Amino acid sequence: MFEELMREIKKLEQPRTMSISIALDDKRFYDRKCSNSECEGTFKVHFDDWNDKVADRAFCPFCRHEADKTDWHTPEQSQHLRTAARAEMSRLLGQALKTGVARTRPTTIADGLFNISMSLDYKPGSIPQVVPATASDELRQDFICEGCSCRFASVGASFFCPACGHNSAESSFNNTLETVRKTVQMFPNLETTIAQSANPDLARDAIRQLLEDQFARLVGAFERLNEALFDKLPTAHQFNRKGSVFQRLDDASSLWQQATGKGYCDFLSPNELARLKILFQRRHVLSHRQGIVDDAYLAKSGDRSYSPGQRLVVRAADVLELCDLLGQLANGLREQSP
């Protein structure tokens, strides 16, 4: 009696494919989330580029975690996929039961004393309602990979392309300049907030430390951009670069002069270049001597505002000046790099 019913249910064991709609934002960007538990950063990739440019593996724009293309769903998307799959399974099972019952004939069992008749009936149950997960709001920063042209977006700086993993020194440098400028502008309000929640001494020390940290951040971003731009030169391989040459202004300028015929003095005035040397040397003292001035600093920087044993004082104006000088110098180097 149950042969037809079991035959229909048996068919459900075969692998099946189904299409499930995922919501996109107004710019056709697709919500993604890093599957690395140490990161779990959220970002977006243009849906067309996710299909066309991302191969079997994808990369996190923040930490460069690499994982299968199927491992980047947000919790909302994962829940939507599970609900849709359960709804489809309920529909298929209901259809199988309906078909199997329809094909099953009533059966009568007679043993002389009793006649037993059996028949099957099927009443369909409810199928889970599938409500697509809505896309999150459009993110503030859009990026286009220099290597493969993949379009993606994030809140805050992104460092790696989701499709090819490329790390853009130019984008990172531009983001660093913008972030540092905006961060410095926020320091007065931040100091007030810390002072109200803790005490004025802690607030002043915290802002001082944050200001000093920006020096290393800016010089590091510029060093990497400088190296990336120089590597683009057709003759870059002909030059021997010793150590961290792009942290040393005179040596780096000489290297560019030899390779392109133009050095830093072609992009900055003598006063600007002298000031940049002072700020670079201050970064070195802050990083390696906890800000305590020595004879080497005075000799290399030409700074006569300090004496050995004093500690550097970093102002917001110094940080913003370093931003402006590095941005101006970077623009000049970009013009020399193909």
Question: Largest beta sheet, briefly?
Answer: 4 strands, antiparallel
Which of globular, elongated, flat, extended, rod-shaped describes the shape? Answer: elongated
**Proportion in helices:** 40-55%
Strand order of the largest sheet: 1-2-8-7
Q: Report the β-strand fraction as a percent range.
A: 5-15%
Total beta strand runs: 8
Average of the residue pLDDT scores: 83
> Structural class of the secondary elements?
alpha+beta
What is the rounded distance between the termini? 79 Å
Extract low-pLDDT stretches.
Answer: none
The helix count comes to 9
Q: What is the domain total for the residues?
A: 2
Supply database-style keywords.
single chain, 338 residues, alpha+beta, four-stranded antiparallel beta sheet, two-stranded antiparallel ribbon, 9 helices, 8 strands
